[in-house]
Amino acid sequence: MTDAGSVRDDAPRTWRRYVYAVSHRDIGIMFLCFAALAGIVGFAMVLSMRGEMMEPGLQIFRDSRRFCVLDTGSGIVTLFFCILPAAVGFGYWLIPLVIGAPNLAFVRMGNLSFWLMPFAFAVFSLSFCVAGDAGGSGLCADWTLSPPLSTYGSPGPAADFVIAAMLMAAVSLLLAAVDFVATILNMRAPGMTLSKMPLLPWSLLIASFLIVLATPALSAALIMLLADRHFGATVFNPAGGGNPLLYRHLFWYFGNAAAWASVLPGIGMVGHVVYAFSGKPGFGRLGIVYAMIALAAVGLIGWGRHLSTAGMPFDLQAFFLIVGLAVAAPAAALIFALVAVLWGGSISFRAPMLWAIGFLPVFAVGVLSAAALNGGVGALLHGSTFETAGDGYLVVFGPAMAFFAGWYFWFPKFAGYRWSDALAKLHCVLTFVGGNLMLFPLFLLGMAGMPAGAADYPAVFAGWNHLAGVGAYIAAAGGGVFLIGLFEALIVRRRAGANPWGTGADGLEWTLPSPPPYRTFDQLPVIR
């Protein structure tokens, strides 16, 4: 292997290194920084909404429409600009390292994939500054952009900006997914068969197939939405023979697959952390892979649970009910496999391990709530805060716990420095407690009949809403601890070494210096 010092010398030193990035690590760190900034914006929206809802009446917003605009924007920011880009960022940074590849298969396409994201976010941000409907600026509609609210219900250009932003973000994710599939299938180190491949590339490979298969449906739906808005088409307008339910089917075909695509990379990261700190490496790994494949298959064909009130034929409702309940089987097998790794192991309760353990109950609650939102029960709870809480556990809270487990696990490899273990554990406790306090009361409110997206509510709902607001502020305090820990790690600069975690961390990435050289593997490792 080439000496690390010599290969670092030919790394670009100016802004060109990132603008014209040809290193998977540079693209990955840009995606992670972008996702972090978008996450701050998205959580600030959620925090302002939860602060508004701590008491009945309007305290922060002058009218309920501004609340609706933030409610629409927060869902789009969270999925399209935070959770999925964060998974992509980890993939770009880590895939070549863990499979022994020198770089990505299509690194310049990866660079294009990143630069589409900030442009998409800029276009999305402009939607808050232009007219949406007669009520004012910004888009006040369901975050899925379902017609008619997104067609003749929002005649201003705000909806067009949001549609354009979502299209660019979808193309970015599609390019990254194609890059991941090509890299993982064709550039593994000699001797690394699929059966020997670690969990992280497996999870990203499965998630990438979901994105590749589902993104064209979203793109088609958004393009037809633009045609309805500006070119006289009536694809989704019943007055012209169209059907608005077609949009919901197309969107949720993508949305359900994208939800599982955001969860699966986190499962791969949690697997790496659990194996590293449990003292039982390799136990049950193929079982976890099969469970992730099953989850992806169910996620691809189970979009009907989001349409429980759409009046589908009975046979189709029965099919989606069975598929929706079937998701519990591979999820239970996955949780059982990870718990079995912990059972009887010599567990080291380092900060990444606490995050990984915290992920398990959060993921379990998310899966159970998704299974509950099927059939007649799903029809009763559709559109309530119960649905909001279930999606929050599965698509936001669960991936966040897993991504932070991966962040603290691989940060020494990213930066070459060790994080304060005490600050990382404090961050974990505040996030776990705050996230549960923020989301779990919404289950109870939803079962009591409170609709999602309401800025005001009867006084009978005040207690649980106040508790949810307290939870949001506790989670925000956890975010502040994270920023303090980041600055502390970069200022104190405790050197990490090639492998700060010991014998449990046995992946290829831990054989390299921390941080790795600019050209990662000049000589490919051979897997025996």
Keywords:
mainly alpha, 16 helices, two-stranded antiparallel ribbon, 1% strand, 528 residues, 2 strands, disordered N terminus
Annotate the secondary structure layout.
Layout: H1 4-9, H2 16-19, H3 24-52, H4 64-99, H5 107-126, E1 131-133, E2 136-137, H6 158-186, H7 199-230, H8 244-278, H9 285-301, H10 314-326, H11 328-342, H12 351-372, H13 375-381, H14 385-415, H15 421-447, H16 462-492
Antiparallel strand pairs: 1-2
Helix pairs in contact: 3-4, 3-5, 3-16, 4-6, 4-8, 4-14, 5-6, 6-7, 7-8, 7-9, 8-9, 8-12, 8-14, 9-11, 11-12, 12-14, 12-15, 14-15, 15-16
Task: Explain what you see.
- It is built from 16 helices and two strands.
- With 528 residues, it is mostly helical.
- It has a two-stranded antiparallel sheet.
- Strand 1 and strand 2 form a beta hairpin.
- Helix 3 runs parallel beside helix 5.
- The chain is globular, with a radius of gyration of 23 Å.
- It starts with a helix and ends in a 36-residue tail after the last helix.
- The relative contact order is 0.11.
